[in-house]
Each structure stands twice: as C-alpha cells, then as structure tokens.
Amino acid sequence: PTAERILQVLPSYNITHFACHGISAINPAYSQLLLVKESMSHGGFPTEEADKLHVKDIAMLKLPESRLDYISVTNSTSLRLIDQVTYIVSSFHIAGSPHVT
C-alpha cells in the first residue's frame, strides 16, 4: 500500500505491524519507513516502486483505536543514528498509541 493509504486507514486499526526498511535523517521528522507500492504492470511485467511514510506524518495522526503498534525496521542508510527506531516509535506515541514495540 502507499503511504497515503496507510495514513488514511491507520487511525481505524487497533493493532499494526510494520516490517520494512527505514531511512534515518539528521532531522528525525524526515526519517521514514520504506514501503512497496502496489505492483504496476509495465510492458506486461510487474514492477515495484518505493513509497515513503515519514515520521512527521505519523506523528500528526490521531490514533484513538490503537492498542499495539509493532515496528520492525532495518536501517537502509549510511547514517549511523542510534536513535532511528526511537524516532519512529516516538511518532506513534505522539499520535496516541499507548504501546509501541
């Protein structure tokens, strides 16, 4: 799914699980989860495009139904930021999720 679609539906879910690559940014608001957009056919062959779900966009959500958000992210950047996962986890806390792992 696209980042736009996730931002639309995330507030209605009470449990989520993200298992994907992440990119750290010096400014934590621009750290992101990398998603695969739905496959598009190009010349009869499926292709995959990356989409980015930014930490700042997650933090702006209101997640009233959220009970558990499980985040499993691998770093796919050359930046060595110890707090990469903290940025992502914090964005869910800011949005109202009580439990983020």
Quick structural overview:
The protein is built from three helices and six strands.
Describe this structure in words.
The protein is α+β, with helices and mostly antiparallel strands. The chain has helices at about 5-10, 55-60, 85-95, and strands spanning about 15-25, 30-35, 40, 45, 50-55, 70-75. Strands 5-2-1-6 form a 4-stranded mixed beta sheet. It has a two-stranded antiparallel sheet with strand order 3-4. A hairpin with an 8-residue loop joins strand 1 and strand 2.
**What is the spatial order of strands in the main beta sheet?**
5-2-1-6
Report the portion of residues in β strands: 25-35%
Count of beta strands: 6
Low-confidence stretches: none
Number of helices: 3
How many strands, which pairing sense, and closed or not: the largest β-sheet?
Answer: 4 strands, mixed
Shape: globular
Identify the notable features of this structure and list them briefly:
two-stranded antiparallel sheet, globular, four-stranded mixed sheet, 33% strand, alpha+beta, 101 residues
Helix-strand blueprint:
Blueprint: H1 3-9, E1 15-23, E2 32-36, E3 40-42, E4 45-47, E5 50-54, H2 55-59, E6 68-75, H3 84-94
Parallel strand pairs: 1-6
Antiparallel strand pairs: 1-2, 2-5, 3-4
